[in-house]
Design brief:
It is built from eleven helices and eight strands. By secondary structure, the chain is an alpha/beta fold. The chain has an eight-stranded mixed β-sheet, sandwiched between helices. Strand 4, helix 4 and strand 5 form a beta-alpha-beta unit. Helix 1 packs across helix 2, helix 7 packs across helix 9 and helix 7 crosses helix 10. The termini are far apart. About 45% of the residues are buried. Bound molecules: 3-hydroxybutanoyl-coenzyme A. The site of 3-hydroxybutanoyl-coenzyme A has 19 residues, from helix 2, helix 7 and helix 9.
């Protein structure tokens, strides 16, 4: 048993809102922290929108949607996380932002065995542990987008994570959330992004060089390899800013050119073309 019932989630963006939905649907009490009242409202709408979509697909009963929403609070003050058993940080993929959050959260949590987890995909967990002042209770727990649908969670203990923290997170992920974990070591990209990100960046380079249209690159991988979606559509789903940030962190760690974000990706991010979440990436999205 993980003993984790009261959960905090930092950030109500794509991943944070998905993790919130998963935890609240598992019956847990969830507090989501956003940076402003407007962002908190947007996060609440994101979670409700996803639940309504699940309801319209018959995945969840209408009464259960109400019950799930009642288990979630949206706040802007980190101090409201003081009583949490677990906080999952899902802020933007920016090392400075995460270090500052872990420094503060290490002081905010009042329970000695409260766990601080990061949903980072590439930032060293050991650094987050070090600044928190409670490194043995810090680890990575990496969900996949869309979190309510994707089964996988990567579990990433750092050199300083205690075996008990890893055991409790494994039990939370499998028994409470019903997800399927794999174990990864604390290296940028972990298992899945180490394989996925070079593939996505190669597809962007291919498009940039004019090999083929975006639609044909994606159709190639969907129809030729049986992937559920092509690499450019998947980059749009993940968020082009996130793809760039992960590639950059992996490049910083390994200095391998295949991880280096191509110029087109830089330009699209600079232009605010972030994919599905901004309405335009390699494809346009309405609503
Ligand atoms: N709760 C429960 N079920 C839900 C749901 C929710 N909130 N939202 C959707 N679903 C269900 C739908 O009902 C549907 O179920 P069904 O197959 O039984 O009918 C199923 O999920 C698929 O949903 P949709 O029909 O809306 O969408 P698609 O069939 O077009 O599939 C997709 C969309 C699941 C995104 C699929 O295209 C896919 O698997 N794509 C690949 C996603 C992927 O690779 N993600 C990993 C990205 S990498 C990452 O996240 C790591 C990061 O660090 C970069």
């Amino acid at each position: 048993m993980s003993g984790i019932e009261k959960v905090g989630v930092i950030g109500g963006g794509l991943m944070g809102s998905g993790i919130t939905e998963v935890a609240a649907r598992a019956g847990l009490d969830v507090v989501v922290i956003e940076i402003s009242a407007d962002a908190a409202k947007a996060a609440a709408e994101r979670v409700e929108g996803s639940l309504r979509k699940a309801e319209s697909r018959g995945k969840i009963e209408p009464a259960e949607v109400t019950a799930v929403l009642d288990r979630i609070r949206f706040e802007t003050d980190l101090e409201t996380l003081a009583d949490r058993d677990l906080v999952v940080e899902a802020a933007s993929e920016d090392e400075k932002v995460k270090l500052e959050l872990f420094r503060t959260l290490g002081q905010v949590l009042t329970q000695d065995d409260a766990i601080l987890a990061s949903n980072t995909s590439s930032i060293p967990i050991v650094k987050l542990g070090a600044v928190s002042g409670r490194a043995n209770h810090v680890m990575g727990v990496h969900f996949f987008n869309p979190a309510p649908v994707m089964q996988l969670v990567e579990l990433i203990p750092s050199l300083t994570t205690s075996p008990d923290t890893l055991d409790r997170m494994r039990s939370w992920v499998t028994e409470t959330l019903g997800k399927k974990p794999i174990d990864a070591t604390d290296r940028a990209g972990f298992v899945v992004n180490s394989l996925l990100v070079p593939y996505l960046l190669s597809a962007i380079r291919m498009y940039e060089a004019g090999y083929a249209s975006a639609a044909d690159i994606d159709r190639g991988m969907v129809l030729g390899c049986g992937h559920p979606m092509g690499p450019l559509a998947l980059s749009d789903l993940i968020g082009l800013d996130t793809v760039k940030a992960i590639g950059q962190s992996m490049y910083d760690e390994f200095k391998e050119p295949l991880y280096s974000p191509p110029p087109l990706l830089d330009r699209m991010v600079d232009a605010g073309l972030l994919g599905k979440k901004s309405g335009q990436g390699f494809y346009g999205y309405e609503g």
